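Cross-posted from the bioinformatics board.
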Amino acid sequence: MVAETLDELNLRERTCGIAPVGCSVLAYNYFNCDFLEAPHGRAPALATGFKRVRPDMIVFTYQGDGDLASIGMAEIVHSANRGEKFTTIFVNNAIYGMTGGQMAPTTLEGQITTTSPIGRNVQQTGQPVRVAELLSTLNTPAYIERVAVHTPQNIIGAKRAIRKAFAYQAAGTCFSLIEVLSTCPTNWGLTPDEATAWLQEKMTPYFPLGCFKSPESDEDSDGPV
Amino acid sequence: MARILMKGNEAIAEAAIRAGATNYFCYPITPQSEVAEYLVKRMPEVGGVFLQAESEIAVANMILGASCTGKRVFTSSSSPGISLMQEGLSYMAGSQLPCVVLNIVRGGPGLGGILPAQSDYFQAVKGGGHGDYRLLVLAPSTIQEAVDLTMLAFHLADKYRNPVMILGDGMIGQMMEPVEFPDSYSEPELPPKDWAATGASDRDPLIIRSLFLDPTTLEENSIILHKKYEQAKKEEIRFENYKVKPSNKVLIVSYGTMARICQTVIDDLEPEGYSVGLFRPISLFPYPEVALRKEATRKNIESVLVVEMSMGQMVEDVEKAVAGARPVNFFGRTGGIVPTPEEVKDQIKKLIKKKSRRGRPAKKRK
Ligand SMILES: Cc1ncc(C[n+]2csc(CCOP(=O)(O)OP(=O)(O)O)c2C)c(N)n1
Protein backbone atom coordinates (compact mmCIF):
# COMPACT_ATOMS: atom_id res chain seq x y z
CA MET A 1 0.00 0.00 0.00
CA VAL A 2 2.90 2.31 0.76
CA ALA A 3 4.56 1.48 -2.55
CA GLU A 4 1.25 1.89 -4.41
CA THR A 5 0.77 5.28 -2.81
CA LEU A 6 4.25 6.43 -3.78
CA ASP A 7 3.48 5.54 -7.40
CA GLU A 8 -0.02 7.00 -7.36
CA LEU A 9 1.24 10.31 -5.99
CA ASN A 10 4.23 10.14 -8.31
CA LEU A 11 6.68 10.34 -5.40
CA ARG A 12 8.70 7.16 -5.82
CA GLU A 13 11.68 8.69 -7.56
CA ARG A 14 12.23 11.22 -4.81
CA THR A 15 11.47 8.94 -1.87
CA CYS A 16 13.80 7.43 0.66
CA GLY A 17 12.48 4.74 2.99
CA ILE A 18 14.06 3.77 6.30
CA ALA A 19 14.01 0.15 7.40
CA PRO A 20 13.93 -0.66 11.12
CA VAL A 21 15.27 -3.69 12.95
CA GLY A 22 12.50 -6.25 13.04
CA CYS A 23 10.63 -8.31 10.50
CA SER A 24 10.58 -5.31 8.16
CA VAL A 25 14.38 -5.05 8.27
CA LEU A 26 14.36 -6.41 4.73
CA ALA A 27 11.67 -3.96 3.56
CA TYR A 28 14.14 -2.56 1.04
CA ASN A 29 13.82 -5.80 -0.94
CA TYR A 30 10.17 -5.04 -1.58
CA PHE A 31 10.35 -1.38 -2.53
CA ASN A 32 11.54 0.29 -5.66
CA CYS A 33 12.89 3.43 -4.02
CA ASP A 34 16.05 4.34 -2.14
CA PHE A 35 16.30 2.87 1.33
CA LEU A 36 18.40 3.20 4.46
CA GLU A 37 18.76 0.72 7.29
CA ALA A 38 18.65 2.10 10.82
CA PRO A 39 19.92 0.71 14.11
CA HIS A 40 17.17 -0.77 16.31
CA GLY A 41 14.66 1.95 17.20
CA ARG A 42 16.56 4.82 15.63
CA ALA A 43 14.77 5.10 12.29
CA PRO A 44 13.03 8.38 13.25
CA ALA A 45 16.43 9.91 14.07
CA LEU A 46 17.80 8.87 10.68
CA ALA A 47 14.63 10.21 9.06
CA THR A 48 15.06 13.51 10.89
CA GLY A 49 18.64 13.84 9.74
CA PHE A 50 17.82 12.95 6.16
CA LYS A 51 14.68 15.06 5.84
CA ARG A 52 16.30 18.14 7.42
CA VAL A 53 19.06 17.97 4.84
CA ARG A 54 16.76 17.13 1.91
CA PRO A 55 13.33 18.64 2.73
CA ASP A 56 12.40 18.22 -0.93
CA MET A 57 12.52 14.44 -0.63
CA ILE A 58 9.83 12.14 0.74
CA VAL A 59 10.99 10.18 3.75
CA PHE A 60 9.24 7.39 5.59
CA THR A 61 10.08 4.92 8.35
CA TYR A 62 8.46 1.48 8.58
CA GLN A 63 8.71 0.20 12.16
CA GLY A 64 7.47 -2.59 14.39
CA ASP A 65 6.18 -2.15 17.93
CA GLY A 66 9.34 -3.33 19.68
CA ASP A 67 11.40 -1.06 17.49
CA LEU A 68 9.19 2.01 17.81
CA ALA A 69 7.46 1.69 21.18
CA SER A 70 10.24 0.13 23.22
CA ILE A 71 13.85 0.86 22.34
CA GLY A 72 12.90 3.67 19.96
CA MET A 73 10.29 5.43 22.09
CA ALA A 74 12.45 8.50 22.64
CA GLU A 75 13.21 8.96 18.97
CA ILE A 76 9.59 8.72 17.82
CA VAL A 77 8.26 11.01 20.57
CA HIS A 78 10.83 13.70 19.89
CA SER A 79 10.50 13.45 16.12
CA ALA A 80 6.73 13.86 16.44
CA ASN A 81 7.15 16.67 18.94
CA ARG A 82 9.53 18.54 16.67
CA GLY A 83 7.02 18.06 13.89
CA GLU A 84 9.53 16.41 11.58
CA LYS A 85 7.86 16.24 8.21
CA PHE A 86 8.28 12.55 7.48
CA THR A 87 5.83 9.66 7.63
CA THR A 88 5.97 6.68 9.95
CA ILE A 89 4.22 3.43 9.18
CA PHE A 90 3.96 1.74 12.56
CA VAL A 91 3.16 -1.97 12.44
CA ASN A 92 1.60 -3.07 15.72
CA ASN A 93 1.42 -6.86 16.01
CA ALA A 94 1.56 -6.95 19.82
CA ILE A 95 4.80 -8.97 19.88
CA TYR A 96 8.49 -9.03 18.97
CA GLY A 97 8.31 -10.97 15.72
CA MET A 98 11.81 -11.28 14.43
CA THR A 99 13.47 -12.39 17.66
CA GLY A 100 10.96 -15.19 18.12
CA GLY A 101 7.97 -13.88 20.02
CA GLN A 102 8.97 -11.97 23.14
CA MET A 103 6.68 -9.56 24.97
CA ALA A 104 6.42 -6.11 23.38
CA PRO A 105 5.17 -2.87 24.96
CA THR A 106 1.95 -3.45 22.97
CA THR A 107 1.46 -7.04 24.16
CA LEU A 108 -2.05 -7.31 25.63
CA GLU A 109 -2.78 -8.14 29.26
CA GLY A 110 -2.65 -11.91 29.73
CA GLN A 111 -1.12 -12.50 26.30
CA ILE A 112 1.36 -15.36 26.27
CA THR A 113 4.79 -14.70 24.79
CA THR A 114 8.17 -16.31 25.38
CA THR A 115 9.03 -13.69 28.01
CA SER A 116 5.54 -13.67 29.52
CA PRO A 117 5.00 -17.44 29.54
CA ILE A 118 2.01 -17.29 31.88
CA GLY A 119 0.53 -14.22 30.20
CA ARG A 120 1.45 -10.55 30.48
CA ASN A 121 1.19 -9.40 34.05
CA VAL A 122 0.36 -5.70 33.90
CA GLN A 123 1.20 -5.25 37.59
CA GLN A 124 4.79 -6.14 36.79
CA THR A 125 5.17 -4.88 33.24
CA GLY A 126 2.67 -2.07 32.89
CA GLN A 127 -0.28 -1.67 30.55
CA PRO A 128 0.08 -2.06 26.79
CA VAL A 129 1.21 1.22 25.25
CA ARG A 130 -1.23 2.98 22.92
CA VAL A 131 1.14 4.80 20.60
CA ALA A 132 -1.38 6.69 18.46
CA GLU A 133 -3.11 8.11 21.56
CA LEU A 134 0.18 8.87 23.29
CA LEU A 135 1.61 10.85 20.38
CA SER A 136 -1.70 12.64 19.90
CA THR A 137 -1.26 14.32 23.27
CA LEU A 138 1.66 16.33 21.90
CA ASN A 139 0.70 19.88 20.97
CA THR A 140 2.63 19.89 17.71
CA PRO A 141 0.32 19.47 14.70
CA ALA A 142 0.40 15.99 13.17
CA TYR A 143 -1.68 13.47 11.32
CA ILE A 144 -2.10 10.30 13.40
CA GLU A 145 -4.48 7.49 12.56
CA ARG A 146 -4.85 3.85 13.59
CA VAL A 147 -5.94 1.38 10.94
CA ALA A 148 -5.99 -2.41 10.54
CA VAL A 149 -5.39 -4.81 7.68
CA HIS A 150 -7.34 -7.92 8.67
CA THR A 151 -10.38 -7.41 6.39
CA PRO A 152 -10.81 -5.99 2.87
CA GLN A 153 -12.76 -2.99 4.26
CA ASN A 154 -9.99 -2.26 6.71
CA ILE A 155 -7.38 -2.54 4.01
CA ILE A 156 -9.25 0.06 1.98
CA GLY A 157 -9.33 2.33 5.03
CA ALA A 158 -5.64 1.74 5.70
CA LYS A 159 -4.76 2.64 2.14
CA ARG A 160 -6.76 5.86 2.39
CA ALA A 161 -4.92 6.84 5.58
CA ILE A 162 -1.50 6.04 4.13
CA ARG A 163 -2.29 8.11 1.05
CA LYS A 164 -3.38 10.99 3.22
CA ALA A 165 -0.18 10.81 5.25
CA PHE A 166 2.04 11.00 2.18
CA ALA A 167 -0.09 13.78 0.73
CA TYR A 168 0.43 15.81 3.91
CA GLN A 169 4.15 15.15 3.70
CA ALA A 170 4.29 16.08 0.02
CA ALA A 171 2.57 19.36 0.89
CA GLY A 172 5.07 19.93 3.72
CA THR A 173 2.24 20.06 6.25
CA CYS A 174 3.22 17.93 9.22
CA PHE A 175 4.55 14.76 10.79
CA SER A 176 2.36 11.75 10.09
CA LEU A 177 2.07 8.32 11.70
CA ILE A 178 -0.18 5.51 10.64
CA GLU A 179 -0.46 2.74 13.21
CA VAL A 180 -1.36 -0.49 11.44
CA LEU A 181 -2.78 -3.33 13.54
CA SER A 182 -1.42 -6.47 12.03
CA THR A 183 -1.32 -10.19 12.77
CA CYS A 184 1.68 -12.36 13.58
CA PRO A 185 0.26 -15.90 13.27
CA THR A 186 3.72 -17.47 13.64
CA ASN A 187 4.51 -16.00 17.04
CA TRP A 188 0.93 -15.86 18.26
CA GLY A 189 0.80 -19.61 17.59
CA LEU A 190 -2.42 -19.28 15.60
CA THR A 191 -3.53 -20.11 12.06
CA PRO A 192 -3.95 -17.06 9.79
CA ASP A 193 -7.75 -17.29 10.18
CA GLU A 194 -7.56 -17.53 13.95
CA ALA A 195 -5.09 -14.65 14.00
CA THR A 196 -7.48 -12.46 12.02
CA ALA A 197 -10.22 -13.22 14.51
CA TRP A 198 -7.86 -12.58 17.46
CA LEU A 199 -6.93 -9.17 16.05
CA GLN A 200 -10.61 -8.25 15.73
CA GLU A 201 -11.67 -9.62 19.13
CA LYS A 202 -8.70 -8.76 21.30
CA MET A 203 -6.76 -5.96 19.69
CA THR A 204 -9.39 -3.58 18.32
CA PRO A 205 -11.18 -3.08 21.67
CA TYR A 206 -7.91 -1.99 23.31
CA PHE A 207 -6.45 -0.29 20.22
CA PRO A 208 -9.51 1.48 18.74
CA LEU A 209 -9.29 2.35 15.06
CA GLY A 210 -9.67 5.91 13.90
CA CYS A 211 -8.00 9.27 13.39
CA PHE A 212 -6.53 10.65 16.62
CA LYS A 213 -5.03 13.84 15.33
CA SER A 214 -5.08 15.74 12.10
CA PRO A 215 -3.57 19.07 11.15
CA GLU A 216 -7.06 20.35 10.40
CA SER A 217 -8.49 19.41 13.78
CA ASP A 218 -8.12 21.52 16.94
CA GLU A 219 -4.62 21.42 18.24
CA ASP A 220 -5.69 20.02 21.56
CA SER A 221 -8.26 17.52 20.36
CA ASP A 222 -7.43 14.15 21.82
CA GLY A 223 -9.93 11.57 20.65
CA PRO A 224 -10.90 9.98 17.39
CA VAL A 225 -12.50 12.63 15.17
CA MET B 1 24.99 -33.90 40.49
CA ALA B 2 24.27 -35.92 37.37
CA ARG B 3 25.29 -34.68 33.98
CA ILE B 4 22.45 -33.15 32.00
CA LEU B 5 22.18 -32.09 28.39
CA MET B 6 21.70 -28.35 28.10
CA LYS B 7 21.87 -25.57 25.55
CA GLY B 8 24.71 -23.15 26.27
CA ASN B 9 22.47 -20.14 26.85
CA GLU B 10 20.34 -22.05 29.37
CA ALA B 11 23.32 -23.59 31.13
CA ILE B 12 24.89 -20.15 31.60
CA ALA B 13 21.57 -18.81 32.92
CA GLU B 14 21.38 -21.66 35.44
CA ALA B 15 25.01 -21.11 36.43
CA ALA B 16 24.23 -17.47 37.22
CA ILE B 17 21.43 -18.54 39.54
CA ARG B 18 23.67 -21.12 41.23
CA ALA B 19 26.22 -18.36 41.83
CA GLY B 20 23.54 -16.35 43.60
CA ALA B 21 22.85 -13.88 40.81
CA THR B 22 19.11 -13.68 41.18
CA ASN B 23 18.75 -10.25 39.57
CA TYR B 24 18.55 -10.30 35.79
CA PHE B 25 17.71 -7.51 33.33
CA CYS B 26 17.51 -8.04 29.59
CA TYR B 27 16.34 -7.05 26.13
CA PRO B 28 15.63 -9.63 23.40
CA ILE B 29 18.31 -10.31 20.80
CA THR B 30 19.34 -13.34 18.79
CA PRO B 31 21.35 -15.58 19.40
CA GLN B 32 20.95 -15.37 23.18
CA SER B 33 17.21 -14.86 23.81
CA GLU B 34 17.10 -18.32 25.44
CA VAL B 35 18.85 -16.86 28.49
CA ALA B 36 15.87 -14.59 29.12
CA GLU B 37 13.34 -17.22 28.13
CA TYR B 38 14.91 -19.60 30.65
CA LEU B 39 15.24 -17.06 33.45
CA VAL B 40 11.70 -15.68 33.11
CA LYS B 41 10.56 -19.12 34.29
CA ARG B 42 13.41 -19.84 36.71
CA MET B 43 13.57 -16.54 38.61
CA PRO B 44 10.18 -16.87 40.32
CA GLU B 45 11.32 -20.27 41.68
CA VAL B 46 14.22 -18.63 43.48
CA GLY B 47 12.42 -15.40 44.35
CA GLY B 48 14.64 -13.39 42.03
CA VAL B 49 14.15 -10.37 39.81
CA PHE B 50 13.50 -10.74 36.08
CA LEU B 51 12.85 -7.65 34.04
CA GLN B 52 12.66 -7.12 30.30
CA ALA B 53 13.73 -3.52 29.77
CA GLU B 54 12.84 -1.15 26.95
CA SER B 55 16.36 -1.19 25.53
CA GLU B 56 19.91 -2.28 26.25
CA ILE B 57 20.71 1.28 27.26
CA ALA B 58 18.14 0.89 30.00
CA VAL B 59 19.42 -2.59 30.86
CA ALA B 60 22.94 -1.29 31.49
CA ASN B 61 21.62 1.40 33.77
CA MET B 62 19.27 -1.00 35.54
CA ILE B 63 22.20 -3.28 36.39
CA LEU B 64 24.12 -0.19 37.48
CA GLY B 65 21.32 0.68 39.90
CA ALA B 66 20.77 -2.91 41.00
CA SER B 67 24.46 -3.47 41.61
CA CYS B 68 24.55 -0.52 44.02
CA THR B 69 22.42 -2.61 46.40
CA GLY B 70 25.33 -5.02 46.76
CA LYS B 71 23.34 -7.93 45.30
CA ARG B 72 24.67 -9.94 42.37
CA VAL B 73 23.36 -8.78 39.01
CA PHE B 74 23.49 -10.31 35.58
CA THR B 75 22.62 -9.43 32.01
CA SER B 76 23.11 -11.03 28.64
CA SER B 77 22.97 -9.76 25.10
CA SER B 78 24.66 -10.02 21.74
CA SER B 79 26.94 -7.64 19.89
CA PRO B 80 24.62 -4.73 18.87
CA GLY B 81 23.04 -4.76 22.32
CA ILE B 82 26.44 -4.91 24.03
CA SER B 83 27.46 -1.81 22.06
CA LEU B 84 24.51 0.04 23.57
CA MET B 85 25.59 -1.03 27.08
CA GLN B 86 29.05 0.50 26.85
CA GLU B 87 28.11 3.77 28.52
CA GLY B 88 26.70 1.95 31.54
CA LEU B 89 29.72 -0.37 31.76
CA SER B 90 32.08 2.59 31.79
CA TYR B 91 30.05 4.14 34.64
CA MET B 92 30.09 0.85 36.54
CA ALA B 93 33.84 0.43 36.19
CA GLY B 94 34.33 4.07 37.20
CA SER B 95 32.06 3.63 40.23
CA GLN B 96 33.68 0.27 41.09
CA LEU B 97 30.51 -1.74 40.76
CA PRO B 98 30.42 -5.48 40.07
CA CYS B 99 28.25 -7.14 37.44
CA VAL B 100 28.47 -9.97 34.95
CA VAL B 101 27.65 -9.41 31.30
CA LEU B 102 27.33 -12.26 28.84
CA ASN B 103 28.03 -11.42 25.21
CA ILE B 104 27.04 -14.18 22.79
CA VAL B 105 28.89 -12.62 19.90
CA ARG B 106 27.37 -12.45 16.43
CA GLY B 107 28.86 -11.14 13.22
CA GLY B 108 29.27 -7.37 12.90
CA PRO B 109 29.81 -4.47 12.46
CA GLY B 110 26.42 -2.79 12.55
CA LEU B 111 23.42 -5.07 12.42
CA GLY B 112 25.72 -7.68 10.89
CA GLY B 113 24.21 -11.14 11.08
CA ILE B 114 23.11 -13.63 13.70
CA LEU B 115 25.75 -16.33 13.20
CA PRO B 116 28.74 -16.99 15.49
CA ALA B 117 31.70 -14.63 15.42
CA GLN B 118 34.59 -13.43 17.55
CA SER B 119 34.66 -9.94 16.17
CA ASP B 120 33.90 -8.17 19.47
CA TYR B 121 37.33 -8.99 20.92
CA PHE B 122 38.62 -5.41 20.73
CA GLN B 123 35.45 -4.01 22.29
CA ALA B 124 35.53 -6.53 25.14
CA VAL B 125 39.23 -6.58 25.84
CA LYS B 126 40.37 -3.06 25.09
CA GLY B 127 37.40 -1.30 26.70
CA GLY B 128 34.35 -0.46 24.57
CA GLY B 129 33.29 2.58 26.55
CA HIS B 130 35.12 5.77 27.44
CA GLY B 131 37.76 6.26 30.09
CA ASP B 132 40.64 4.39 31.73
CA TYR B 133 38.99 1.10 32.59
CA ARG B 134 39.03 -2.55 31.61
CA LEU B 135 36.58 -5.39 31.80
CA LEU B 136 37.77 -8.75 33.06
CA VAL B 137 37.00 -11.03 30.12
CA LEU B 138 36.59 -14.82 30.17
CA ALA B 139 36.18 -16.93 27.03
CA PRO B 140 34.72 -20.45 27.42
CA SER B 141 35.18 -23.12 24.78
CA THR B 142 32.72 -25.74 26.05
CA ILE B 143 29.35 -25.50 27.74
CA GLN B 144 30.81 -26.97 30.93
CA GLU B 145 33.51 -24.35 30.91
CA ALA B 146 30.87 -21.66 30.27
CA VAL B 147 29.09 -22.82 33.43
CA ASP B 148 32.28 -22.85 35.48
CA LEU B 149 33.47 -19.48 34.19
CA THR B 150 30.06 -17.88 34.73
CA MET B 151 30.19 -18.85 38.39
CA LEU B 152 33.78 -17.67 38.62
CA ALA B 153 32.80 -14.40 36.90
CA PHE B 154 30.47 -13.43 39.76
CA HIS B 155 33.24 -14.07 42.24
CA LEU B 156 35.74 -12.01 40.24
CA ALA B 157 33.22 -9.20 39.78
CA ASP B 158 32.85 -8.94 43.54
CA LYS B 159 36.53 -9.47 44.24
CA TYR B 160 37.56 -6.67 41.89
CA ARG B 161 34.35 -4.60 42.11
CA ASN B 162 34.40 -4.39 38.34
CA PRO B 163 32.22 -5.62 35.45
CA VAL B 164 33.22 -9.05 34.15
CA MET B 165 32.33 -10.19 30.66
CA ILE B 166 31.79 -13.73 29.47
CA LEU B 167 32.71 -13.58 25.80
CA GLY B 168 31.06 -16.49 24.04
CA ASP B 169 30.76 -16.82 20.32
CA GLY B 170 27.31 -17.78 18.98
CA MET B 171 28.18 -21.48 19.13
CA ILE B 172 28.62 -21.39 22.91
CA GLY B 173 25.08 -20.04 23.21
CA GLN B 174 23.40 -22.33 20.76
CA MET B 175 25.02 -25.76 21.01
CA MET B 176 23.94 -28.47 23.43
CA GLU B 177 26.38 -30.45 25.55
CA PRO B 178 26.29 -32.43 28.76
CA VAL B 179 27.01 -30.29 31.80
CA GLU B 180 27.37 -30.87 35.48
CA PHE B 181 26.56 -28.33 38.18
CA PRO B 182 28.33 -28.61 41.51
CA ASP B 183 26.06 -29.98 44.25
CA SER B 184 26.67 -26.96 46.36
CA TYR B 185 28.17 -23.66 45.42
CA SER B 186 31.15 -22.39 47.36
CA GLU B 187 33.72 -19.71 46.71
CA PRO B 188 36.59 -18.10 48.56
CA GLU B 189 35.49 -15.54 51.10
CA LEU B 190 35.01 -11.98 49.90
CA PRO B 191 35.28 -8.74 51.85
CA PRO B 192 31.98 -7.34 53.16
CA LYS B 193 30.18 -5.08 50.70
CA ASP B 194 30.49 -1.96 52.83
CA TRP B 195 30.35 0.11 49.64
CA ALA B 196 26.71 -0.82 48.93
CA ALA B 197 23.91 1.71 49.33
CA THR B 198 21.90 0.01 52.07
CA GLY B 199 20.70 3.09 53.93
CA ALA B 200 22.60 5.41 56.26
CA SER B 201 21.19 4.07 59.53
CA ASP B 202 24.28 2.99 61.45
CA ARG B 203 26.93 4.71 59.34
CA ASP B 204 27.56 7.96 57.44
CA PRO B 205 25.79 8.39 54.08
CA LEU B 206 27.78 7.03 51.17
CA ILE B 207 27.81 8.10 47.55
CA ILE B 208 28.37 5.77 44.61
CA ARG B 209 29.64 7.77 41.68
CA SER B 210 32.09 8.13 38.84
CA LEU B 211 32.10 11.95 38.85
CA PHE B 212 35.29 13.46 40.22
CA LEU B 213 35.55 17.06 39.05
CA ASP B 214 38.83 17.60 40.82
CA PRO B 215 41.48 16.19 38.46
CA THR B 216 43.63 14.89 41.32
CA THR B 217 40.75 12.87 42.71
CA LEU B 218 39.83 11.59 39.28
CA GLU B 219 43.40 10.56 38.70
CA GLU B 220 43.41 8.83 42.07
CA ASN B 221 40.29 6.92 41.07
CA SER B 222 41.94 5.84 37.83
CA ILE B 223 45.02 4.73 39.76
CA ILE B 224 42.82 2.64 42.07
CA LEU B 225 41.27 0.98 39.01
CA HIS B 226 44.68 0.49 37.44
CA LYS B 227 46.01 -1.21 40.57
CA LYS B 228 43.09 -3.64 40.48
CA TYR B 229 43.89 -4.50 36.88
CA GLU B 230 47.55 -5.01 37.79
CA GLN B 231 46.46 -7.32 40.61
CA ALA B 232 44.25 -9.23 38.15
CA LYS B 233 47.26 -9.63 35.85
CA LYS B 234 49.00 -11.45 38.69
CA GLU B 235 46.10 -13.49 40.02
CA GLU B 236 43.61 -14.11 37.25
CA ILE B 237 45.60 -15.40 34.29
CA ARG B 238 43.91 -18.45 32.81
CA PHE B 239 44.84 -20.50 29.77
CA GLU B 240 45.08 -24.07 28.58
CA ASN B 241 47.66 -25.91 26.52
CA TYR B 242 46.71 -28.70 24.15
CA LYS B 243 49.43 -31.03 22.90
CA VAL B 244 52.05 -28.39 23.54
CA LYS B 245 55.38 -30.25 23.49
CA PRO B 246 59.04 -29.75 22.54
CA SER B 247 58.54 -31.23 19.06
CA ASN B 248 55.93 -28.58 18.05
CA LYS B 249 56.87 -26.67 14.93
CA VAL B 250 53.80 -24.50 14.90
CA LEU B 251 51.91 -23.09 17.85
CA ILE B 252 48.27 -22.24 17.23
CA VAL B 253 46.76 -19.53 19.40
CA SER B 254 42.98 -19.58 19.44
CA TYR B 255 40.17 -19.08 21.97
CA GLY B 256 36.54 -20.07 22.49
CA THR B 257 34.93 -22.65 20.24
CA MET B 258 37.44 -21.82 17.51
CA ALA B 259 40.07 -23.44 19.71
CA ARG B 260 38.11 -26.70 19.66
CA ILE B 261 38.23 -26.79 15.89
CA CYS B 262 41.96 -26.24 16.15
CA GLN B 263 42.22 -29.25 18.46
CA THR B 264 40.66 -31.38 15.73
CA VAL B 265 43.17 -29.95 13.30
CA ILE B 266 46.05 -30.87 15.60
CA ASP B 267 44.73 -34.42 16.09
CA ASP B 268 44.25 -34.88 12.35
CA LEU B 269 47.71 -33.60 11.49
CA GLU B 270 49.54 -35.70 14.07
CA PRO B 271 49.49 -38.99 12.09
CA GLU B 272 50.66 -37.06 9.04
CA GLY B 273 53.79 -36.14 10.94
CA TYR B 274 53.03 -32.51 11.74
CA SER B 275 53.66 -31.55 15.33
CA VAL B 276 51.41 -28.67 16.29
CA GLY B 277 50.36 -27.39 19.71
CA LEU B 278 47.53 -25.14 20.82
CA PHE B 279 47.69 -22.31 23.32
CA ARG B 280 44.19 -21.30 24.37
CA PRO B 281 43.77 -18.09 26.36
CA ILE B 282 40.79 -18.36 28.71
CA SER B 283 41.17 -14.99 30.38
CA LEU B 284 41.33 -12.51 27.49
CA PHE B 285 41.84 -9.68 29.93
CA PRO B 286 44.14 -10.13 31.74
CA TYR B 287 45.88 -11.73 28.76
CA PRO B 288 48.22 -14.70 29.42
CA GLU B 289 51.07 -12.85 27.80
CA VAL B 290 54.03 -14.33 29.68
CA ALA B 291 52.84 -17.92 29.36
CA LEU B 292 52.19 -17.44 25.66
CA ARG B 293 55.63 -16.00 25.08
CA LYS B 294 57.18 -18.99 26.81
CA GLU B 295 55.34 -21.52 24.63
CA ALA B 296 55.79 -19.54 21.43
CA THR B 297 59.54 -19.23 21.82
CA ARG B 298 60.30 -22.90 22.47
CA LYS B 299 63.32 -24.03 20.48
CA ASN B 300 61.53 -25.91 17.69
CA ILE B 301 58.66 -23.50 17.12
CA GLU B 302 59.05 -22.01 13.66
CA SER B 303 55.94 -19.92 13.63
CA VAL B 304 52.79 -18.99 15.45
CA LEU B 305 49.37 -19.16 13.82
CA VAL B 306 46.51 -17.17 15.30
CA VAL B 307 43.09 -18.48 14.27
CA GLU B 308 40.02 -16.36 14.94
CA MET B 309 36.46 -15.91 13.72
CA SER B 310 37.26 -12.31 12.85
CA MET B 311 39.48 -10.33 10.53
CA GLY B 312 42.22 -10.50 13.14
CA GLN B 313 41.84 -8.87 16.56
CA MET B 314 43.46 -11.06 19.21
CA VAL B 315 46.40 -11.42 16.82
CA GLU B 316 47.55 -7.99 18.03
CA ASP B 317 47.88 -9.28 21.60
CA VAL B 318 49.75 -12.32 20.33
CA GLU B 319 52.15 -10.11 18.39
CA LYS B 320 52.68 -8.07 21.52
CA ALA B 321 53.39 -11.18 23.60
CA VAL B 322 55.69 -12.81 21.06
CA ALA B 323 57.34 -9.44 20.44
CA GLY B 324 59.00 -10.39 17.17
CA ALA B 325 60.67 -13.53 18.54
CA ARG B 326 58.74 -15.69 16.05
CA PRO B 327 56.70 -14.86 12.95
CA VAL B 328 53.05 -14.44 13.84
CA ASN B 329 50.61 -15.47 11.11
CA PHE B 330 46.90 -15.04 11.05
CA PHE B 331 44.03 -16.98 9.60
CA GLY B 332 40.39 -16.09 10.12
CA ARG B 333 36.93 -16.16 8.63
CA THR B 334 34.27 -13.77 9.74
CA GLY B 335 30.69 -12.65 9.23
CA GLY B 336 29.36 -15.85 10.80
CA ILE B 337 31.56 -18.19 8.78
CA VAL B 338 33.42 -20.68 10.94
CA PRO B 339 36.79 -21.79 9.57
CA THR B 340 36.76 -25.48 8.70
CA PRO B 341 39.47 -27.85 9.98
CA GLU B 342 40.54 -28.31 6.33
CA GLU B 343 41.15 -24.58 5.90
CA VAL B 344 43.22 -24.42 9.07
CA LYS B 345 45.18 -27.54 8.08
CA ASP B 346 46.06 -25.96 4.75
CA GLN B 347 47.40 -22.91 6.55
CA ILE B 348 49.59 -25.05 8.80
CA LYS B 349 50.92 -27.15 5.94
CA LYS B 350 51.84 -24.00 4.06
CA LEU B 351 53.63 -22.62 7.10
CA ILE B 352 55.63 -25.76 7.72
CA LYS B 353 56.51 -26.16 4.04
CA LYS B 354 57.60 -22.57 3.79
CA LYS B 355 60.08 -23.02 6.65
CA SER B 356 58.96 -19.63 7.70
CA ARG B 357 61.43 -16.82 7.65
CA ARG B 358 62.35 -15.00 10.78
CA GLY B 359 60.83 -11.63 11.38
CA ARG B 360 57.24 -10.75 10.91
CA PRO B 361 55.78 -11.59 7.50
CA ALA B 362 52.79 -9.64 6.26
CA LYS B 363 49.71 -10.96 7.97
CA LYS B 364 47.50 -13.08 5.81
CA ARG B 365 44.04 -11.68 6.19
CA LYS B 366 41.37 -13.54 4.43
C1 LIG C 1 20.37 -3.06 19.77
C2 LIG C 1 19.59 -4.24 19.36
N1 LIG C 1 18.90 -4.93 20.28
C3 LIG C 1 18.18 -6.00 19.94
C4 LIG C 1 18.16 -6.43 18.65
C5 LIG C 1 17.39 -7.69 18.29
N2 LIG C 1 16.13 -7.48 17.60
C6 LIG C 1 16.03 -7.69 16.27
S1 LIG C 1 14.48 -7.39 15.69
C7 LIG C 1 13.93 -6.93 17.22
C8 LIG C 1 12.54 -6.47 17.46
C9 LIG C 1 11.49 -7.05 16.61
O1 LIG C 1 10.23 -6.71 17.06
P1 LIG C 1 9.31 -5.55 16.47
O2 LIG C 1 10.01 -4.24 16.45
O3 LIG C 1 8.04 -5.62 17.22
O4 LIG C 1 9.09 -5.93 14.94
P2 LIG C 1 8.48 -7.25 14.27
O5 LIG C 1 9.63 -8.21 14.11
O6 LIG C 1 7.39 -7.76 15.16
O7 LIG C 1 7.99 -6.77 12.96
C10 LIG C 1 14.96 -7.05 18.16
C11 LIG C 1 14.78 -6.80 19.60
C12 LIG C 1 18.90 -5.70 17.70
N3 LIG C 1 18.94 -6.07 16.42
N4 LIG C 1 19.60 -4.62 18.07
